[in-house]
Amino acid sequence: MKSSYDCVVVGGGPGGCSAAAITAEGGLSTLLIERDPFPRFHIGESLMPEVYWPLQRLGMISRMQQAGFQAKKSVQFVTHRGTESAPFFFREHDMRECSSTWQVERSEFDKMLFDRAEELGADCFDRTRLLDVRFDEMQKVIGVTVRDKDGNDHAIDCPVVIDATGQQSFIANKLGLRQVNPDLRKVAVWSYYRDALRGEGDNEGATIILNTESKDSWFWFIPLSRGITSIGCVGDTDYMLKGRGKPEQVYFEEMERCPGLQSRLENATRLGDIRTAKEFSYMTTQHAGDGWVLVGDALGFLDPVYSSGVYFALEMGVRAADAVVDGFKKNDFSASQLGRWTPEFLEGMQWLRKLVYAFYRKEFSIGRFMKEHPEHRGRVTDLLIGRIFDESSEQLFRDMDHSIAKAQKAM
């Protein structure tokens, strides 16, 4: 570990690894640190097809194809009565290779990205903790202080820090920039099962979203490799945790209230512990400053329902890194330069946020909406693929609001 770098990237998840890979490839001396030892566990196994493009930029497509991850070619929804929607097959909308993606074990996937950043020239250290980001009197970044795996502290000079510290969001918390979304105060409780019943054919690797009877919670069903399936329950924090006992008790109670899940678990065996994460939907009020920029969950996290987290992190990492490399060419490390990509990104992100809000309306049914407006099936599929930057979805959501209002009147 040197005493100075052009760029220090903090966090070895998809956002940090993609950023470090691009800055190193761009000729910048880059330090990438991760506090946990690799391989390490992380939630978020389901990828959107649009990860293809940042992974292609990183030279990772052939490696992904050879890694043995479960192919994901569709998304399916199951109602509170157990009625299954027709699967949204990505290739029915787009036959290109980029319309198929993967369900990944994050411990393996993140290690692949970490190794790729090192291959491209970044100095990569796990078991290394960020202690502080140092600013001058003008609030411009001048360096970081880190602690290595042996407990030694290092003061490292650098003009740019890319914060990819996930929900820890180091700089945002240091500067008071993080705001929890009051409309999405959710908790997730999840575990893993062997031999859960999957779909057939091209739907075998589908991410399945299943509502419970009351629609107060929903389950994700994410088929991984080696016969393992990630199964998690998400609901409002108050509903899930207040006065209902331990999270594992709530998990099994909600499972009994999910008719679409019962047949899928008849011959399944649970593996490992039950895990919990809460209040994970938030946004930062400022995304870049002089000498720093946030990427991935450090910038914000929307919701797990459409599996956008890893794609957003990879895409943000690439865009932020490009802005940093260009900033070095211009000797410009200002907030406007390092965060130049954020307005377009956040504008695209709003369409998926609207789809999340619609999902949590009890009056909303994706199956009913598709019957009422089959002309929107392609655009809905686009959003599930992750194509949020290509075109407006205003008409889609006008019609969706009308569908929800009509359902309200009928209740």
TrEMBL record:
Keywords: Oxidoreductase. It comes from Novipirellula galeiformis. Its EC number is 1.-.-.-. This is Putative FAD-dependent oxidoreductase LodB. The keyword Oxidoreductase applies. The keyword Transcription regulation does not apply. Residues 6-310 form the FAD-binding domain. SUPFAM superfamilies: FAD/NAD(P)-binding domain (SSF51905). The gene is lodB. Signal peptide: none annotated. One of its GO terms (molecular function) is FAD binding. The lineage of its organism: Bacteria, Pseudomonadati, Planctomycetota, Planctomycetia, Pirellulales. Pfam families: FAD_binding_3.
